[in-house]
Amino acid sequence: MVVVVVVVVDVDVDVNGAGAGDWPVNVAAPGAAAGTATAEHNRNRIRNRNRNPFPFPFPFPMGPQDRRRSRCVSKPFLCRRTASAKMSPHNPIGYGGKESTMSQAMLSALRSFTLLPLLVLPLAAENVSGDLKEGAPDLKSAGPLAFGPPGILFVADPQGASIFAIDTGDRGPAAAGKELKIESIDEKIAGLLGTSGREVAINDLAVNPASGKAYLSVSRGLGPNAAPVIVRVSGASDLQVLPLEKVRFAKVQLADAPAVQPASAEEGTGKGKGQRRGNPRLESITDLAFVEGQLLVAGLSNEEFSSTLRSIPYPFKLDSLKEGAKGTSVEIYHGSHGKLETNSPVRTFTPFVIGGEPHLFAAYTCTPLVTIPLSKLKPGAHLKGKTVAELGNGNRPLDMVVYKKDGKDYLLIANSRRGIMKVATDGVEKTESIAEPVKDTKGLTYETVSAWKGIDQLDRLDEKSALVVRKTDAGSFVLETLPLP
């Protein structure tokens, strides 16, 4: 397997042209096979969180390196590859390679760019499911989703405190510029499952960057006995239940998940209802992302400081699972509550590069926004995140993506009570950590996107649009594409 790494800085690209914008750095790992593709024909995809591609042309030749479609994030964009290969969110590079070289001048120039979203480049991997075994995953629930190597879908099972890597067999190609709108998606899924819309809960959404198809994690029924289902959406009239009776998959069990505690009847067991007090096991996994060869997992553990981030190598290896699935405890200062917190889980997060180093933007209930360096995620360690914003209390963040608009990087956060927030990331590396009580908001600023209402889930579809699950005033759900604000 040969890896090609490209570093892109300050891009302003016309996706239909061959030369718009400046691409000042172009680095590839040495020793790759020679290629013949020209700059005009060499188009790769880049993406920021978590999950979806957008095509960019390269305005100059890559040199005599392999141009196979690759998807990676180089840490920290210095194009280094060691035997423990790196991966990007939902798309792989995770194959060993030689360490590339770069002039000191180029390294200095790279480090001068203090803030960049994590960039992802597509990779065509041979034998991407080589470490998977055929069988039937013993899913007890289906929660957060994330894509990794081409066609590999990570499915979190909070109730079982485990994560499955499932080979969907869906490796593209993606259809360009495809818009989608499916009214009453919950009712249509219910029809597939032979039940009513009231008995269906859509838990998460992920777009496969290789094909552009949407995948939904679904619960059929309510409460702890609900059946887990994965639904693939290929078009407005093409919904399929992903067969799980005979698929290639791998599984990792979390080593330090909280014990199962039955929920009381008055608290309920639906999404966002009493999960924390009733059954902390249901929050053993709250979000996923695939970054630099690691599956990042947010949630709770059974430790005294229970807020946890885990960094699990993929492919899952037996000799690393025992230590790798154990988490890093996370401490933050919550300005709205006026205190340090160690037991509130990250609700949603997205990878981002700050000061040349990969970080996470992580959001918590009552909406503190925190930055966490990936280099600090070590099994059994403890870290303190930097609170860079208080975005308003009485709110629960639901989902988050990062994107570029007019040359600037923004976070787009869906919330339970405060609508869609478009958060400016300018100056985040210089933002002082919030360490005193805050009455309302402080730190990074945001604007409310009033045109987007009722958003429960969102994912990047391409450089200009997102795919969302939206709840209507009538209570039904719509799956549709929306232009990024």
CA distance, first residue to last residue: 39 Å
* Uncertain ranges: 1-117, 119-127, 265-276
**What name is given to the CATH topology?**
Methylamine Dehydrogenase, Chain H
What is the residue-mean pLDDT, rounded to a whole number?
76
Number of domains: 1
Strand neighbour order, sheet with most strands: 3-19-20-21-23-27
Net shape? globular
Looking at the overall shape, the CATH architecture is: 7 Propeller
Keywords, separated by commas or semicolons:
6-stranded antiparallel β-sheet; 485 residues; 35% strand; 6% helix; single chain; 6-stranded mixed β-sheet; Methylamine Dehydrogenase, Chain H; mainly beta; 4 helices
Structural features, described:
With 485 residues, the protein is mainly β. The chain has one domain: Methylamine Dehydrogenase, Chain H (7 Propeller), CATH 2.130.10. It has helices at residues 104-111, 185-193, 275-278, 318-324, and strands at 43-46, 54-57, 115-116, 133-135, 145-147, 152-157, 162-167, 181-182, 200-207, 214-220, 227-235, 238-241, 247-253, 287-291, 294-300, 307-313, 328-334, 339-341, 348-354, 357-363, 368-373, 382-384, 386-391, 397-405, 408-415, 420-424, 441-443, 446-448, 455-460, 465-471, 477-483. Strands 3-19-20-21-23-27 form a 6-stranded antiparallel sheet, with no helix packed on it. Strands 14, 15, 16, 17, 18 and 22 form a 6-stranded mixed sheet that branches. Strands 4-13-7-6-5 form a 5-stranded antiparallel sheet, with no helix packed on it. The two termini are 39 Å apart. Residues 1-117, 119-127 and 265-276 have low confidence and may be disordered.
